[in-house]
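Follow-up to my post from last week.
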Amino acid sequence: MKELRGAKLWITIGLVALSCLPALVVENNYLLQVCFRIALFAALGLAWNLVGGYAGQLSLGHVAFFGLGAYGLAILASHSVPVPIAVLIASLLATLVAALIGKIVFRLRGPYFTLATIACGEVLRLTATNLNITGGAIGLTVPTVFTGPMFWKLYYLSAVALAAGCFLVNFWTANSRFGYYLMAIREDEDTASAVGVDTANYKLRSLLLSAFLTAMAGALYGSAFQYIVPDNILTIDISVQMAIIAMLGGAGTLLGPIVGAILLLGASETFKTQFQESHLLIYGILIVLVVLFLPEGIVGGIEQLLRSRRKAAKPPAPTPNQSPAISAVEKGN
Amino acid sequence: MQGKISLILISAVAVMVTVGCQKGAGNTVKVGAITSVTGSQAAFGEAHKNGYAIALDEINSKGGVLGKKLELDIYDDQSKPDQAVQGVSKLVDQDRVPVLLGAYSSENTKAIIPAVTQRQIPLIIPTATADNVMDSKSPWVFRICAGANDYAKATIAFLKANGAPKKIAIVYENTNFGQANRKSMEAAAKEAGMDIVAIESYEAKSPDYKPVLQRVKQANPDVVYLCSYLLDASTLMRQSQEVDFNPKYYTSAGTGFAAAEFPTAKGAGKNAEYTFSVSQWLPAVQWPGSKEFDDAYFKRFNSHPAYHAIQAYAALHAAADAMNRAGSLDSAKIRDAIKSLNLPSTPFGPVQFDAGGQNQHPVLITQVQGGQYHIVFPQDAADAKPIIPAPKWNERK
Amino acid sequence: MVHFLQACMNGLLTGALYALIGMGLALIFGVMRIVNFAHGSFLMVGMYVSYLLFERLKINPYYGFIAAGIFLFGFGYLVYKLLIQPIRDRSDFMQILMTTGIALILVDTAQLTFGADYHQTNIDLVNRAVHFGPFTLNAASLLSFGIATVFIVGLREFVVRSRTGQALRAIAQNRDVAPLMGINVTRIQGFSFALGIAFAGIAGGLLLPALYLFPSVGEDYTLKAFVIVVLGGMGSIEGAAMGGLVLGVAESLTSTYIGNQWALAIDFVLFLLMLSLKPSGIFGRQRA
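User reply:
Got it. Predicted complex:
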């Protein structure tokens, strides 16, 4: 098990180095922007993965944190807070809000939880549209972190750095007691609770982590495009995209959200140029196909395939019929 | 599994092929345009596309630009500001267009100003009423249409010359367009010493504005200034009748109240009667070529153009004219040619940009009379006298 | 006082249509526990069907809605058989994802077919108002209210009295035991889904004269439908009807006394309040 982990780590370090390549090779600003988006949404997918993948809580309100990051940056910067500090404070504020939201929504289960998260995102969007401090529907200008001719290259590298950070957080979570408890909650919350896991606490922690990272991504995104409006930066579409990226690639896996981001955003850009008006249709068809035929997502599907091959290779040892939740908790303890 | 890998590969190849194929043929000149082909503003993006199309044909039939055929490179911003910014990158960095037109809405336009300024490419804005669009004072930005402040000032001037009412109420939709126009009218009314008795916003696309209108009615204004898109205008008038709201003047910031369908059965029908609106253009206006534009548009697209179409038309003509006079595809030279542009008689009226890049486009005030728009202000452009006050609902036939 | 009552009355008129939408979702979500995030999109399809009938065949939406309902019954059944039934026993996650995908397909297909333009059907009835005393009510809204009430009562009677209706409620109470009672669960579930979608279509047809029609018009209504179902209580058809009326009145009062731009927000506030304080809803029996 350990050598596998080590190999995975080296592979991923290599991949990160490889993803920096476009910054050196590509001169076309348009392509760099596309790459920036892909990297940023990979980061978002990974951030969402903490709550939606490992903890199994289908949140469709993550855009709330995304928007809070962007608006936080814009509002703080307009009060002369230096940009890097503003990004940090905005992200911390978003985490605070996440704590509040978590208190409300984590009392609910299943579809109620999802609906409550949607409601939170929408309330935030409506509030931003109606308040003066957020510029209402007219929006706000966002200051940039970088300037100069290397603008998009630097932004791309920042997005890669953020994605790498999110990946590390995922990696650490997947291999820690924290992560195992989350997975126990995902498999069977009642059983996990009965076995002594403080489910409310761990769910909240995953949300706080996830919110912080999402908000940083939001601040980065807002400052890259320099102008934000509620309908654009607090729209439920972004929440849905985050969830779909993770699920398409494989929720609860490490590489899943990354693969999902590359695939979905790459396809979207291509389709936009070729099929302009039907990229949403293709999105929808992709989702339906994945749910019908590849519910574990791409990476999840591959992992399952490898697992079943390994099982076929050696005869299975007799294991007691145990709840997957308890297995996860035991792994963590 | 194989299928998924193939999909990734195909996508990657497709992207590269698309990118590679962007090298333009050497014997055409390209102008870039960003507009909302899809998304919530798609209806207006289509008006832009159509206006551009008519201008394109006219320009090419007269020899094109710099002796070559003119082509329009359109980027769809999906009605989203960040996509508009991406569009600038694609059109300028990749397709190397020397001049840009666009975008459609105020927020999309405002979003692309930094990108355009950074790349030092001239931008001609056909449609963006929020005045904060011109805030940056960038020397590369030119706006051909009038803004929200002009709307408010023209309305106030009209009111002053026609009865000088004292009390005004502002009703606006809760969008960028509505909020921008509300700000402008609030400022202009205050400056004119009018008494603002009510300011109410409403959520566009909701079917029931009666509570809003009820509250405004209770404030008893002489004038109501409505800032609405398309179909909200029809609903507002119908529900004004229902709550029996009778100000002396119904005025508006155009768009919904200036749409071609508004006075017809497809819009508000008889309820549209007596409403005033600001307008940037009407088919019936006295500028040379406007009737021909209307005819050409109707023949080709089977509907009558709203002013967004002719704004796009005028913008493309201005760009072509500037490129021809600059005699080159150098962006700085084109920008200077735009600065010195002077087209005294186009179907969109005189086009000339002031030191701040703004075209002083005259704002007309129209009134619906007998199911038709008539220009009632300013006097020298008017073709009818305004009917004031608007008769009460129960007195109308 | 007059204004308060007027606002309540206007709210009830809108609320009846909300009730239809909510009851449709109650059939699907409450009874079958299928999380249908495409409910509003089906409503939109119903609107387009009525619109087409009006534009091409000059059929008044107040007749056309029947056709919309029938079409959506069949369409809903098809969607269920092809896309929902295969994933019936998967997690809520998957259902939400699947129905979100369906919604995207429906919306984009509508946009490709009809364009993103806003359309409005102008029927004379919409311009007429009924006055009694100090109150004014829109004639078209009154008609919608009347028709909706007929369907609401009809559905309730059906669910309570008929064999199929009782089978439905049996499945809602305990899906595992129901087959032991001789209920063909698969067939009833398909029927239930189709019926729920049909109701969305009917509501769409009735809403057409009052609303603007464009491809994403249904999105707000999906959320509203869930709010209504939660307000009324899971598994309760009457609850959903009540929930719809309550929502309509709440929106109208918010619009009148606080401001129209907050009317949408009240949906969410009520939703979150209900979920936090009494998750089983006003009429609910089951645990949330």
